[in-house]
Amino acid sequence: MRMFSVSHKTVFVVDHCPYMTESSRQQIECDMLTKSRAQGVIPLAPVSKSLWTCAVECSMEYCRILYDIYPTRKLVNYIVSDSEFHILNSWRQEDQSVQELMTALAAVGPPNPREDPECCSILHGLVAAVESLCKITEYQHEARTALVDLADRVANRGRIICLTNAKSDTHVRMLEDCVLETIQEQNKLAAGSDRLMPIQQCELVLVHIYPQGDDTLVSDRPKKEISSVLSSEVHSVRAGRHLASKLNVLVQQHFDLASTTITNIPMKEEQHANTSANYDVELLHHRDAHMEFIKSGDLHMAGSTSRDSGLKETVTLKWCTPRTNSVELHYCTGAYRISPVEVNSRPSSCLTNFLLNGIFTFTPSEIIVISHMLSCHGGEIFLHMLNSTRSTLEDPPSISEGCGGRVTDYRITDFGEFMRENRLTPFADMSLDAAGRPPIERAKAQLERHTRYWPMIISQTTIFNMQAVVPLANLIVKDTMTEDDVLTCQKTVYNLVDMERKNDPLPISTVGSRGKGPKRDEQYRIMWNELETLVKTHVGTSERHQQVLECIIACRSKPPEEEERKKRGRKREDKEDKTEKNGKELEEKMWTQDSDRLKGAMEREKEDQSESEVIKDSPDSPEPFNKKPRLATEEIQPLEKSKGPVSLFSLWTNRITQANSRKHQEFAGRINSVNNKAELYQHLKDENGLVAFPCPVF
Amino acid sequence: MPTVVLMDASLSMTRPVSLEGSEEFQRKNLAVHGLTMLFEHMAMNYRLEFTALVAFSSLWELMVPFTRDYNALQEALSNLEDFDKTCLELALQGVSTIMQQEWGSACPCQLVLVTDGALGIGRGSLRHSLATLKQRGEDKKFPLPFPFPCKLYIMCISNAEELQTTDAMDNLEQLLILSGGEGQIFTMEGPLCLKSVQAMFGKLIEQAYMPFHAVLRCGHLTSDVQVFPRPEPVMIDEEVDPVPKHVLTELEIVGFIEIADIASPPVLSRHLVLPIAVNKEADEVGAGTTDEMEEDTSTNQMAGKSPNFCVLLHGSLKVEGMVALVQLGPDWYGMLYSQADSKKKSNLMMSLFEPGPEPLPWLGKVSQLGPISDAPENPYGEDDSKSPFPVQPKSKRSYAQNVTVWIKASGLQTDVQKILRNARKLPEKTQTFYKELNRLRKAALAFGFWELLKGVAELLERECTLLPDSAHPDAAFQLSHAAQQLKLASTGDSQYAAFEHNITPMLTDFSGGGGGSDRL
């Protein structure tokens, strides 16, 4: 594979001298009278194209096919030659289109028959062509700049296609000599220039065009090396149809193209909408699309037929309408742009319009094997080569048999959502962000941010199983957060606090733990810890991310600080009353063992209410227990209410309760209760807020 | 990449190896020993490779067709008989047939030729084959190069000095060049013994059968994986950029794309991506396959139970119908997707795109693909009803625009008829009439086909005279106006023959107040 092969640069040199106005003598009847109108009307005399018209339209057809199949990197420079040369376009990519050339050709117009033939010559054009080949293209420039020291590795080769009417074989040799001389001269010039490159290889293709019915004065000659830089071939062709098929063969040779005829394409006739006839359409494409046939020597099996000159072969593939509309990923080993041979024939345009509307089609070469697929991507039609041989990857071990294959609770849906958020989209060229990163780097950075904390399985996470956390989880991964985003995050946190206050159940996985799993306050502790972990990974991103973390720290219950508080309290009490040490120890033991759960819930509740209360409730400002008014209810006095020392009575009751509780299983309602009050039928509330009253059965 | 082991079973392989003070070995024993080592290695670390065993002498025989059953290969090897003389050409022919029958002509293959370097004498010898290379017809061509890409590893049960005393080494080197130059000739170093044959096969294993291990990464989510078959280095442009590109051992996911958007892209090769549990004690790793070996089973069961990113990724890709775009190296990308082998079994698969900044025209440059959150509005729409793909090319292809081609007379005739058909329906068809007229005018001007302009002008004038009495008066005006404009253009006068100029309908009293202008 060589980027700068001979086909990188093609110069067309078309003769614009007076003799090109001569008629090709191929007559076209363009007055096709319908039978009903035929009476009494004299039909118009047929028109015939001049040699110039023939040369121009065939060269345009060559370019059309070339541009269809190689929209970039294969460049054409178009030159016409009369008493001087006229360069119609440049090597620049934006000049490479048939429209561009047509506009320029219209401006040139047909040759002037009255011009002095002595002043006119194709030589002007050929010299200009060689000069043009020395000019560097943007692709060559790019490659040279990229390679710096190895810039000389970028080759400069090219092809000159000269459409002219030569006088004799001697004349042809004169033209070849002239080209060779010019190359030698220009190469010397180019050696000392930055914008020019010496030509390493040049292919001269001389096409001698003569009117139909004339005898040719120039003989055909296959390609021969004239010197190490120049090779030349001569084609002597009659104008019209013959010239067209010659240039069609040449464009295939020059650009490694091959032809495929798709047969039996069903098409509906406008007049007979309910019947369909079958048509064939011939397409050109890179010959690699036939690789499988060529290599296996199956070209003939696949229905190859040689036609016309014997030079041109086409592989016939049978049409087969797509079986499914479902989106499938086919194993495709190549995709090649196509160009219809007869672009404006009815079957061709019918097929291309069908494909441009985005409908897939398959074309099998045999009945069983589907070998190719025609598919349109953004206004371009490609022939996809499908793999039809046995796969070396058949019968692989299933993913469920390998590492991680036995795990069943992957967060498949969540990761699906993650993938949707991390889908890619094209950005305009050179769109860098503030940090100078191209889009793809930003995509990677986003993936990095989004995965800083991403548990893979459901049982590893609490927060990602909670609908309530979603707004925060979505926002915290952003690169930049707005003030509103921070507010939303804070609201999420408050909402969680509220949930905790209401003692809402959490979706904590019980996998791996026996029984009911961790207790409710432990669940919330796990949840807050996880939330903190998530947010902490993003704290460095910006000030606002930091704010979210601060909010969480401020709002959540803080087990480490509680410990701290207890320790402080213990020290103080130790100092106060050393004699009651034993009692204190007992009390503390009970405090931690029995009332931890209740205390946690209560304290958190209070923290939510107001900060001042937190201070008041702290062990630093103990309330004398005996001053507390006794309540007449059955309610057990929450221990923390009385902070400081505990009364003997409560110690006693606690002990009794504890002893009793070992003898029976605690009621679920009491476990989940707040202040010893359990809300009934909680689950019903969760369901659309509907409250139903089932009859108790006794 | 399937492997064919081509084993020399000629009589010369039974030559004894002189060893002091131990039991007598034949060269064949050494070869079998080396191959056993290779098969054992493959069974352990490369077990998804399909391998076939072919034995040859003056004839060849497929001992074991392509299989992953290394016990079967081993068994066939130990039952190998001795035959007559060496005839490599026929055997290579056989390999070519076997390969193509099984895998077609595009599948790359590795050929391990095990021989003692005695390459036959007279007709059928390698020397004779190579000498007559250029005197053959199409039907008797030398089998190398194979139609499929092939790496040729020649394992000589012989040392280099011995081979150089004859022309064997030269012939083998020529053979390697003929096959395309990919591969290597291995010879034994020092005395011919079990140790040196082990060393030689060890080198082969290192070069061709080491599993490719990589880390698959998506941000902070990672998984150790084996990529099978090993991704081969790729050459893009031998002239400008002659360095082969290697797939990095860090495969980084850059983003995700819908299957419909990636649209069956062409790929260089496909590979299984198998999660592996890296054993910290030894570098040996299980390829995540079903295990026969007991000690592996327990570690594999352990590995099966700890969550793996590959499994998560595979599951989500499958459910969502998406692919992950993965970076394989600088300016080189591929895609990860779920590939179903059957209804129950599916796998994480990786396909490699052609190296380069823009492997798929419909995606545009990969470096210009960015996160949707950077776009001013979600390019997929709020309800996933749109897609930013395919990227539209800068210019339209010829078949997507209304080009004019008159190479065949019928093309020109159709275009003229279209104008006449519309001319007869004036003024209703004024719009289409002028559109077709201008299209023809433009093409005629570009092709320098002024004669046609005159001809069509005459046709329009004639149409004018043929108008029935019932015709709308505007029709006559438009026809003669159009005819006159064409005639002016055919003079080449720059005022009228400008390419960009369009003939516009004549403003008449009828068209001004009536229907004509409405249709413009």
From TrEMBL, chain A:
Belongs to the Integrator subunit 13 family. Residues 559-637 are annotated as: Disordered. The keyword Cell division applies. It is found in: Cytoplasm; Nucleus. The keyword Cell division applies. Its main location: cytoplasm. This is Integrator complex subunit 13. Residues 559-619 have a biased composition (Basic and acidic residues). Keywords: Cell cycle, Cell division, Cytoplasm, Mitosis, Nucleus. GO terms for cellular component: cytoplasm; integrator complex. It comes from the Eukaryota. InterPro entries: Cell_cycle_regulator_Mat89Bb. GO terms for biological process: cell division; centrosome localization; regulation of mitotic cell cycle. The gene is INTS13.
Automatic annotation (TrEMBL), chain B:
It is found in: Nucleus. Residues 373-394 are annotated as: Disordered. InterPro entries: INTS14, IntS14_b-barrel, IntS14_C, VWF_A, vWFA_dom_sf. It comes from the Eukaryota. GO terms for molecular function: metal ion binding. Its main location: nucleus. Keywords: Magnesium, Metal-binding, Nucleus. Residues 209-356 form the Integrator complex subunit 14 beta-barrel domain. One of its GO terms (biological process) is snRNA 3'-end processing. Residues 404-511 form the Integrator complex subunit 14 C-terminal domain. GO terms for cellular component: integrator complex. Residues 3-117 form the VWFA domain. Signal peptide: none annotated. Belongs to the Integrator subunit 14 family. PANTHER family: INTEGRATOR COMPLEX SUBUNIT 14, PTHR13532. Component of the Integrator complex, composed of core subunits INTS1, INTS2, INTS3, INTS4, INTS5, INTS6, INTS7, INTS8, INTS9/RC74, INTS10, INTS11/CPSF3L, INTS12, INTS13, INTS14 and INTS15. The core complex associates with protein phosphatase 2A subunits PPP2CA and PPP2R1A, to form the Integrator-PP2A (INTAC) complex. INTS14 is part of the tail subcomplex, composed of INTS10, INTS13, INTS14 and INTS15. This is Integrator complex subunit 14. The gene is INTS14.
